[in-house]
Amino acid sequence: MTTTQAQVRPNPLGSRSKSAGLAFLLLVLGVLYLSPLLWMVLTSFKNRVDIFSSTPRLTFAPTLDNYREAFQENGFTTNLLNSGVVALLTTGIALLVGVPAAYQLSRSKSKLGGIYLLGLLAARLLPAMVLSVPLFVLATKLGLSGNYVAVVAAHLTFSIPFTVWMMRSFFLSIPPSLDEAALLDGCGEFGVFFRVVLPLTKGGIAATTVFCLINSWNEFLFALVLTGRDTATLPVAVPTLLTPIGTFWGQIAAVGTVTVLPIALFAFLVQKYIIAGMTGGALSSD
Amino acid sequence: MQSPAFLVLALVVVFPLIYSINLSLRQFSLVIPGRTGQWAGLDNYRRMLHDADFGASLITTLTFVVVAVALEAVLGTSLGILLDRLVRLRRTITSVLLLPMIVTPLIVGLMFNFAFNAQFGYATWALEVLGIETDQGLLNKGSTALAVLIAVDVWEWLPFIALMVMAGLRALPASPFEAASLDGASAMQTYRYVMLPMLKPVIGVAVLFRATEAVREFDKVFVLTGGGPGSSTTVNDLYQYRVSFLNWDLSYGAALGMTTFVAVLAICALVYRVTTRMDARV
């Protein structure tokens, strides 16, 4: 279908013979577009003199000092671990409670289910700032401030609604007649879910997992308000390098590079799942 | 099977929200002496009406959201239509487009803070090479600081609209395009009268989604400008952060938050109704 469209639709970029030149032009534009990211990676390998040069330097003697200072001396390894723990706990719980809920919602046509879905949509529109005040007060009063419980709970406020919405659209694409056939063959309700439906939505679960992990890994405001010294995630810890006596740009670049690296890998390795997550599962074609 | 999810959400979303409404009707602070949670009625909501800083933050937020999302919509749609042609490079292009928007927003803010540094930022250097006067750095002047913030947001989110448009184009049927070319429509006519109307729902969803996200902008401003210089880039969420977590006026912060949430919900419902009605008419 795509090929017929390609012939029929007007082509704003001219004929195919120019395609090699075009590919090169696109490469240059792509590198330019990503230059802020690339510059950060370069900066992380520069020494102080090269970083603070008034004309940007593309060639320099690479050094690992920034990484050593940040991760060995300034304790960013702890923050890296915290980020990982928070993202994994959040995603695990969100999937555990969200996926079955999504399945049941996709199979029921009751009015209550509709209201529940609208509530979930409203929860997705809820600004983090609105919840951060009550969550902070509650965490302080319950003595949970500064440990993983508070920040994971806060991350669940966006992960669960996301998981339910996303997985529901994947479950909707599986015909209910399949469930019924399995029930007739003697599968219990749980058997239908675990042995028949779930294996068919592996892609959907992968997409949901990747997205939940990234969102939790990137989250800043809840983590800023609810984590303490020992549980601070990477986004919370990095701004501490902007100090009144000077900014450690080399270390910021090093920690920034490490923060972004797993996400960049995701972007290349499981691209189609991220696309599916971004469009809410509605536009996933392959 | 949905009761566990319901229970967790009741615990982490519904209960805190009710708690926050209660908080907003009292005078409570963990730091300011004498504010132990005594009843205050609607005092905190009345205070908002006379709060000039809150008003200013709303205007800044509105400017930011409208300009940034409009630019993203126009540029993103154009880019999406252009890139849709490149069938063989689609995977690589998608990866490049994905990166800006899935990279940690806080790191994005820091990257551009560094790029626009007055003394050694490479963006400052590039602008001066191009002959554009940057004075003491674009981030140190109110009007240009907001422009940089908008530009960074466009850099980050233009790909989102482009990818949505690319996905939308893929799902379009071929027959209207065949009909248009049989009828001798020019390329421009095909875009204007065939492609854009069919893309409208996709673009509409993408813009609505972007707007609800831009309204709560916090991370990038926090590290890019800190709301300054002066209060020129203090968007609503940053203002609320200051009220709640720097001045420790938690009750007033709760009132501001509840008001914002209700406003966002109302605007979404309104936009949704208007767009569905427009679709019905066309």
What does this structure look like?
The complex is a heterodimer of chains A (286) and B (282). Chain A is mostly helical and 286 residues long. Chain A has one domain (68-278): MetI-like fold, CATH 1.10.3720. Chain A is built from 16 helices and two strands. Chain A has a two-stranded antiparallel sheet. In chain A, a hairpin with a 2-residue loop joins β1 (242-243) and β2. The radius of gyration of chain A is 24 Å and the shape is globular. Chain A starts with a helix and ends in an 8-residue tail after the last helix. Chain B starts with a helix and ends with a helix. Chain B is built from twelve helices and two strands. Chain B has a two-stranded antiparallel ribbon with strand order 1-2. The radius of gyration of chain B is 23 Å and the shape is globular. Chain B has helices at 3-24, 43-49, 52-83, 90-102, 105-115, 122-129, 142-170, 175-182, 187-214, 219-224, 236-246, 250-281; strands spanning 26-28, 36-39. The mean pLDDT of chain B is 89. By secondary structure, chain B is mostly helical. Chain B has a single domain, classed as MetI-like (MetI-like fold, Orthogonal Bundle), CATH 1.10.3720. Helices cover 73% and strands 2% of the residues of chain B. Chains A and B meet through α1, α2, α3, α6 and α7 of A and α1, α4, α5, α7 and α8 of B.
Short description:
The complex is a heterodimer of chains A (286) and B (282). By secondary structure, chain A is mainly α.
Assigned CATH superfamily of chain A:
MetI-like
Main β-sheet, spatial strand arrangement of chain A: 1-2
Low-pLDDT parts of chain B are none
Structural class of chain B: mainly alpha
In the CATH hierarchy, what is the class of chain B?
Mainly Alpha
Whole-number average pLDDT of chain A?
86
Number of E-type strands of chain A:
2
Biggest β-sheet description of chain B: 2 strands, antiparallel
CATH architecture of chain B: Orthogonal Bundle
Roughly what percent helix of chain A?
over 70%
The chain-level structural class of chain A is mainly alpha
Q: Which spans of chain A of ≥5 residues are poorly predicted at pLDDT below 50? A: 1-7, 281-286
| Count of individual domains of chain B | 1
Termini Cα gap of chain A:
14 Å
* Most strands sheet of chain A: 2 strands, antiparallel
Radius of gyration of chain A (CA) equals 24 Å
Most extensive interface: pair and counts? A-B, 93 and 89 residues
Q: What is the CATH class name of chain A?
A: Mainly Alpha
Quaternary structure of the protein: heterodimer
Query: Overall mean pLDDT score of chain B?
Result: 89
Q: State the share of residues found in helices of chain B, binned by percent.
A: over 70%
